[in-house]
Amino acid sequence: MALLIEGDCINCDMCEPECPNQAIALGEEIYEIDPDLCTECIGHYDEPTCVKVCPIDCIIEDPERPETAESLLEKYQFLYNK
To answer: Where in this chain does the record put each 4Fe-4S ferredoxin-type domain (predicted)?
Structure first.
């Protein structure tokens, strides 16, 4: 699944610089993850870095965007032409 930042985000600026796909940006009120760019760090790291650094654990799997590890890897390969 792509990841989703919940509404209790405190805009601490920890997640955005950690995203290797530049999928995280400040939205109107909180940070948001572009699901078309999010690979849950597959292709880069063993686990999503945004989840790892979030101090309040407000980043979850997006229930509206179910994706398998294989589809996330395909997205990574498409994004990086590999």
So the answer is: 1-29, 31-64
